[in-house]
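#struct-help
A.M.: can someone run this one for me? Single chain, 666 residues.
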Amino acid sequence: MSLVLVLLAQSVQLTADEGFWPFNRPPVTIVSRKYGFSITPEWLQRVQLSSPDMRGSSGFVSPRGLVISCYHGTSVLDGLRESADIRKTGFYAKTLEEELKCPGLELLVLERIDDVTAEVLKAAPANGSYSELIKARGEKIAELEKAASAASGLKCRIISFYSDNVFGLYRYRPYTDIRLVFCPEESVATFGGNNPDPDNSDFISPRLDICIFRVWNNGKPLETPYYFKWSPTGPKENELVFLTGTPGETSRFLTCAQLEFLRDVRYPFEIAFWQKKLEAVQALRKLQPGPPKSISDIRTYLDAYRMMLARLENATLMKITAAEESALRQWAKTDHELDEEVGRAWDETRDVQALYASFYRAYTLVADGRGFDTAYFPLARAIVRKAYGEAPSEPRALKLSEPVDDLIEIQTLASSLELLRQACADLVEVHWLLDGRSGQDLAKELITGTRLKDPAFIQKLVEGGRTAVSASNDPMVKLALLIEPAAKGMKAKLDDEVRSVEARNSERILKAWLKFKGEALGPPDANGSLRLSFGKVSGLKEKDRIFPYRRSFQSLYDQASRYGNKPPYELPIRFIEKKSAIDKRIGLDFLTTADAVGGNSGSSCINAKGELVGILFGRNLQGVPSEYFYDDKNTRTILVHSGGIIEALRKVYDAGPLVDELLGRK
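D.P.: on it. Structure tokens below:
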């Protein structure tokens, strides 16, 4: 066997547990072979119907419509009039009448998946251009979605997999009457913030990161025959568990050239950007002390990007990827028709990486807006684009997401403006902005002069439309207007000359992969649709350090005590008052090797019986590169422990009726 094929075989073995499996393509063989558990159609259906999408991952946990998710992954508190108080004091509805309606929240239950690949692919015109192909497919997809929705009364949408080589028609039953039943205080739901756990620096601190809702239908709690029964004891070490939820996006089929672009261009830029930002904020804090949150948040990004770069610089991983790619290219040459279609795909993809590298910094700073690093700029841009006919991605884009410290905004904006000056010296707009003055002076002028901290002013601009926006003297709005033509030009260049080429060739390469490996290829990249992943409950051994598979309430109290019970290690007063009542040996969180990525927060973790044992809220630092590589040796997913949730509800929040419902006692 050649070295290429040896490495290829090794890579398949290394990723045996990898991936996010669609429910119409479950990991039956792999799970049976490794864990001796049979995934039956009945088990799979029960799990699918128990795993609704509620702006993210969630799970039914009672026959009367109770749904659990994580605190940090839900934005529903933003729509509640009582949100400010709830964040401080928590909330528990002792009766059905006290449950709070969550305006604008929708929950979707996936009832059925149909393979419509043949119908969609047949829509492509023979010998048509790539743009014609995309247009024809889009029209066919819209036609199929409309027909399916009309026939079923469900919300139907078609989701593509393997770079538009496979298409599934997903049929969802929607519910819009969602009510808040319980959420803890924000201080314990986000305990420790983004700071590393002082005992285990690769992990965030333990926390009670959950929210519980109830779905209502026709004026009464929804009857939900499919739900996860609650495990009051939680998982055991080395036990098989599954995650069911809606992971965001992964990119695990990138070519070597694309990975090299990330290694050589993107992540070095990100590290430089966040390092400069960190230095700017640290300089301010030396002169004027303030909350440490901004510095810890910046360090979190910096650590994440450094971990990404370190994984991409791993020579063994890159050799395995190169070997797999080489094996596929050699095999494709044996099929004349496939070689005609795919042969140039890798070379074309490599060429556009070089093109993208030539304007990546300018694009990121101008089109992505990173050269104007203040919370006010994306708000100003959203207002401008809405005025000129481009709807924001969501209503929250038209307001500040959280309180803003103008002194920090000045520092971060000044830092990014200097990067903009260096990277975009040939851009005329940059000369208009910065010739003859420093980034610091311009930043101060923009931040002190803008009125975008005033909701009434924002509303007036939005309601006034193009006339009000174009006539505005607000310096941040004027900046967004000035930059918009250049930003749109760069976006068009990226889409037309890079992304379209990548998409066309990715589709060809994935077609070859599917022919080459067939079922052995594994699951498609995550894309926000419902998926299943699996692994075992396991701690982590790293050099001379051992991280146990779970942390208890004692760890929570120890950290609060160590930092004087001050933010971000501040426990709510009720946790202090009820300390003696809690059995501090009970687990509060635990670790698993199950694959997870951004967007998985709130995912239900279940055992082989289908019982809920945890709610996902994070990953360790080594798990950050999971977007590109899966590594069950060093990556761990972190989940709130089902036993710990019951202990907190019963002993801290006196939520006996809720506990009874979760445990099936009423």
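A.M.: thanks! Residues 269-503 form one domain.
D.P.: also worth noting: The longest helix spans residues 475-517.
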